[in-house]
């Protein structure tokens, strides 16, 4: 396969000059990267990655519009409502509760309920967990796992005595019901962070990928959705996709990085100082290549027109080509 090239935008970031002026270099320190790829610096400035004259640089980004999120009553702190385009118009986590004392996502609150707004003008449907469980997550993920045109909801559900598992819910007869779940680790305060869902191995079935215990030896697991259940297909150790104590869940990406027409999984290694490009086959998960980073990954990985953009905990910015 073609070698992945890492472009580092470190201290000397080229910022386009005003008309008639010379290009200037500007040192920036990355604070965070938004889902739209806008880079927020520690000094409060906003930039986007741009390619001009055959090289990558930064251009100022427009100020943010006044935030008006979707109507998601009871949304938990740091939570995000996710819009769908099938039978679920909106999904979110609600009913914040301190009853599960783990706090790996930045505060002591978790969600006691999963809520969805049905499409075509439907109302809000809610699934409330018993006292021994919480949704240890910040947002649900929507995917049509079986190709029937309806959304399945993928979310992390934690049990007080058995730890966290990936759970799948769906709208059935106007009720939000559990459809399947992975096996929890069997001990409390063990978390799992979903990567996403796709037909990773090209066999016509959708797989769900997640990293179990991303802070302590992280293991990527892949389950195939078949006959209404999650069937474990493979695993690989030595990865992570979350920094403990932060609300940033998406330190990962899904894209065809090897050019074989199938989506690959991009995950940092356990110390988050390199990116691993992982390819899934029906028999195993293998590493296609590994890319060194200038420090520990600290922001979400965001797909832009110039590649995947990410920042380190030290404030460095890195761009990895989408199709190297």
TrEMBL record:
- One Pfam family from the record: FG-GAP_3
SUPFAM superfamilies in the cross-refs: Integrin alpha N-terminal domain (SSF69318)
Q: InterPro entries under this entry?
A: FG-GAP, Integrin_alpha_N
Tell me yes or no: is Cell cycle among this UniProt entry's keywords: no
Q: This protein's superkingdom?
A: Bacteria
Signal peptide span: 1-22
Q: Which UniProt keywords apply?
A: Signal
**Protein name in the entry:** FG-GAP repeat protein
């Amino acid at each position: 396969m073609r070698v992945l090239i890492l472009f580092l935008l470190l201290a000397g970031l080229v910022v386009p000059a005003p008309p008639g002026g010379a290009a200037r270099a500007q040192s920036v320190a990355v604070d965070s990267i938004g889902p739209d790829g806008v880079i927020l610096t520690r000094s409060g400035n906003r930039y986007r990655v741009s390619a001009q004259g055959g090289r990558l640089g930064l251009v100022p980004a427009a100020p943010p519009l006044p935030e008006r999120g979707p109507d998601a009553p009871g949304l938990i702190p740091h939570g995000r409502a996710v819009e769908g385009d099938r039978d679920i118009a909106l999904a979110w986590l609600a009913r914040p509760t301190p009853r599960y004392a783990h706090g790996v996502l930045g505060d002591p609150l978790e969600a006691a309920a999963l809520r969805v707004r049905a499409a075509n003008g439907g109302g809000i449907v809610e699934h409330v967990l018993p006292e021994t469980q919480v949704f240890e997550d910040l947002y649900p993920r929507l995917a049509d796992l079986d190709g029937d045109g309806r959304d399945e909801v993928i979310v992390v559900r934690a049990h007080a005595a058995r730890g966290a598992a990936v759970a799948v819910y769906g709208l059935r007869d106007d009720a939000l019901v559990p459809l399947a779940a992975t096996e929890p680790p069997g001990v409390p305060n063990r978390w799992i962070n979903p990567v996403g869902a796709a037909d990773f191995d090209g066999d016509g079935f959708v797989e769900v990928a997640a990293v179990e215990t991303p802070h302590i030896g992280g293991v990527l697991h892949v389950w195939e959705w078949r006959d209404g259940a999650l069937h474990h297909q493979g695993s690989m150790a030595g990865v992570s996709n979350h920094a403990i104590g932060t609300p940033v869940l998406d330190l990962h990406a899904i894209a065809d990085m090897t050019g074989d027409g199938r989506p690959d999984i991009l995950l940092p290694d356990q110390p988050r100082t390199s990116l691993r490009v992982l390819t899934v086959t029906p028999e195993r998960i293998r590493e296609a290549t590994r890319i060194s980073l200038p420090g520990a990954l600290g922001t979400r990985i965001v797909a832009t027109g110039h590649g995947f953009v990410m920042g380190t905990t030290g404030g460095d910015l890195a761009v990895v080509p989408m199709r190297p």
